[in-house]
Amino acid sequence: MSTLFFITFLLSILAILLGLVKPKLVIRWGDNKSRREVLKIYGLTLLLSFLFSLSFQNNFSFRDFLAASFFIIFFVSILLMLIGLIKPNFIIKTEKKLTRKDILKIFGISIGLSLVLAVMAIPPVTIEDNIEDARNFYNERKYNEAINEYNSVLSDWDEDESGSLTLDEVKKELENVKSSYSKEIENEINDNLKNNEFELAKNNLNKLKKLSIETSNIEKIEEKIFVKDLKNKISKANNKFNNADYREAKNIYLDILNDWRNGISNQYSKKEIEKKINQIDQKHSFIANIKIIGKGTINQKEGEKRFYEGEVLNLEVSEKNDENFLGWMGDIDSENNNLSVKMNANKDIIAKFEEKEYELKTSISGKGNIRIEPSKENYNHKDKVTLTAEAANGWVFDNWVNDISGDNFNKEIEIIQDTDIRAVFSKKEYSLDVDTFGDGEIRIEPDRSSYRHNELVKIIANPNDGWILDKWDNYDGENTKSIEFRIQDDKNISAIFREKISNLNFNTVYNNSKNMTDAQFDQYKEKVEGKRISWTGYVVEVKEEFFGDDYEVLVDMHDPNSLSVQDVYLNGIKSDLALNLNKKDRISFEGNINSVNKVLGAIAIDLKNVKIR
Length: 613
Known about the structure:
This protein is α+β, with helices and mostly antiparallel strands.
């Protein structure tokens, strides 16, 4: 019968899928052959056939019913929600037009309900399940996990959930696990003792004790570990003693006495061990009594310090005190800063340092005062002194010079030698003079007769038409139109203006001289004379000027290899530049046109204020 209902269930799924594509294929009756009708008819058939098929199963429980309900509600809700998201009013017919948000709310609730049913259908973990887990751990030799699982079962024991097992049976299983685990631990302890791994053996012994099982082996194992460990320590201490490592030997002997157990340890002589310790203290250990005289430091603290025979005491004088160190005294006589002393007897060791005194000299540049704290005639080595520079009215502290530096008016120093210090003070008010050369003006912000120390000053250059700022004299910054600086002394700055370079070229002047009448060219000369030009030509000749020490450079503006005459005369050229020029050198130059003249079909142009680049 269950098979029949299961076949009906599968056919219902097929009918729904076909009907959603073409309803007329699965509904052969009535007038309403819609997809909604397909879902109503075959959805109900699907639900009933599924439930009836389950009801005929053997051992079908209420939890099985909940699980089946979850399966149907969940997957039907998902299917309807997907259809509704595509066409909201197809699934639920209402007067109100449904939105996709409404579909998500409705079927979201049904999906949530199905999940609640799924949780209710999950069977609880029983005691039998926990015991099965414990047995699995035991079979896998995971004894700790098995013991923890059995203990959990015993702490939550419930007769109603225990099934066929009794409490005594579970306890017996637990004891068997512990017994197996204890044997494994005992084997590990034996391996540890064979390999002299005493710490591992002690750790495994603690594990054995925690099992809380009734066995006489624990005391025997503990005694066995102790005896083997004791034998190993005594052997190790005797070797250290024989090799003159007395410090380590004594530490091991003391450790043996601290762990001594009467009865167990009696196979060894306690008196013999105590005798060894006394022998080390009386015959093989020595005291170094260290003292420091004077102001100085070494790498050892003052007082008594025990050393054992053969050990080395290293003595070092601190580098910052080495100039004052006079030497070692007492049982050691040496002036070396660093010593290594082999201890073979008691020794008195004294590090002696010289008590030096130093002079502190101070002086003033400008007007002001230096306050010294503490103020003394002489100072000891490494005394701390605080210096405070106090400027007089109208003056400001600038910096420290000589043996110290810096511009902080308050300074702490450490006296390690004779010291000479000068405090430099500057006037608080300064004058500012700004000159102009060329055709232009300047503006000062703020414009005052004097300025305070470190005050910010701005100077702006405004060249007149046809002029530009060339540079600032007595100013170390960039040659920008506007400059800013903090005034710290009297200043005299000059703004140098020069004429703008004209775009007039030589060929234009030359062609006009040929094409214009004399009258036209005379008018043209008046326009170009005075203009500042920048051209390039070839050196023809260099001559000393008739008056003065300067030179005149004659320049050809055409190819120097062609037949031509000089075109441009550069006047006022200094000797250091003129004497380095050679014929046919190609040079770039700028200057003001002083005169333009026609000469035998050619042209002669005189320049002044010339710069050769």
